Amino acid sequence: MKLFFLTLSLYTCLNLTLKAQKADGLVKWVTFKEAQESLKTNPKPLLIDVYTNWCGWCKHMINTTYSDPNIAAYINANFYPIKFNAETKDSIMYNGKLYKTTSPASNATHELAIKLIGNNLSYPSTFFSADNFEVNLLSQGYLDIAKFTPLLTFFSEKTYKYVNVNEYSQAYNRAFVDTNFVKKHIKYYTLPEIEKLQQTKPKKILLNLFANFNMASKVQSLTTLKDTAIVNYLNKNYYVLNLNVESNDTIIFKNEKHFKVNNGQISLHSLAYKICNGTLQFPSLVVLDELYNTIGVLNVYFAPSNLLPAISFYGSNAYKQKSWQDYIVEYHKIK
């Protein structure tokens, strides 16, 4: 009899756990208070799932997108995720201001829901906010894994500084989904090959620094660096070299050995730090002159239309006569 009740108790606990997981997905949700306290010591963006109890698509998103192990793991590592019932009666402190329900009625919309998603009350709504609350992104409606993934990387990697979300999502789709996207291929060289070619046909060198942990650098490599105009210009005017900053290879550059080193947080290749003049971030394209001196560190995400004038600025030697500001004004006048 004791064994029966023990088995029944274990079954009940397991059943309750499974129900809780189904209700919340695999994401480790936190409260507004917990997230904002954690921001003080460990800055990360917020991801707020705005839902209602009666919303079927909200439940479906929990049971599908938020129950995907890869999506949940990425969210748990890179965001403070918050489930927010848009009709809660609780008062909530958000970014230094107290928000309350708008009415005692059971289905009254909370003031914070209106603050986050405006008067277009559509559920589910997914609201992203930077760790300083100054940059926000709202996506309304059900998001499957394919639509959700680029939004996550776009916001967590702060790619919003350089490109809008629609342009990035399109590039992400072209990189990993769209099989009809026409990709032209750059001629990549090894460092020894470049050193040999420089003796008879000197050119500028473009180093594409990428990391497997950084999605923006992958997307840029698979789209911007596959664009026809970009590829044509680079193949004609540059020697292009790929450098995986997580590589374990020892590389000799300008008679100096470079290898993977730990900077206290992560192990990356010392050559990347060297050629970036200590300003390494991702994505990064580094321009070297014919004598292997760094003349440009382009450590932002580039769409094709933005990269072409940048590589032309160095490839044409315009950087020797004028500032980038003067050059880009003239470039757009000509175009």
Explain how this protein is built.
This protein has 13 helices and 14 strands. Strand 13 and strand 14 form a beta hairpin. The protein is elongated and about 80 Å long. The N terminus is likely disordered. It has a 4-stranded mixed sheet with strand order 2-1-5-6, with helices on both faces. With 335 residues, the protein is an alpha+beta fold.
Number of helices: 13
Structural class: alpha+beta
Helix content: 40-55%
N- to C-terminal distance? 85 Å
- Please give the number of β-strands: 14
Low-confidence stretches: 1-20
Specify the biggest β-sheet. 4 strands, mixed
Q: β content, as a range?
A: 15-25%
C-alpha Rg (nearest Å): 25 Å
Primary descriptors:
335 residues; alpha+beta; four-stranded mixed sheet; disordered N terminus
Task: State the gist of this model.
With 335 residues, the chain is an alpha+beta fold. It contains 13 helices and 14 strands.
Give the SSE layout.
Elements: H1 2-24, H2 32-39, E1 46-51, H3 56-63, H4 69-78, E2 80-85, E3 92-94, E4 97-99, H5 111-117, E5 125-129, E6 136-140, H6 145-156, H7 165-176, H8 191-197, E7 204-210, H9 215-222, H10 228-237, E8 238-244, E9 251-253, E10 256-258, E11 260-262, E12 267-269, H11 270-275, E13 284-288, E14 294-298, H12 304-315, H13 324-334
Parallel strand pairs: 1-2, 7-8
Antiparallel strand pairs: 1-5, 3-4, 5-6, 7-13, 9-10, 11-12, 13-14
Helix pairs in contact: 4-6, 6-7, 7-9, 10-12
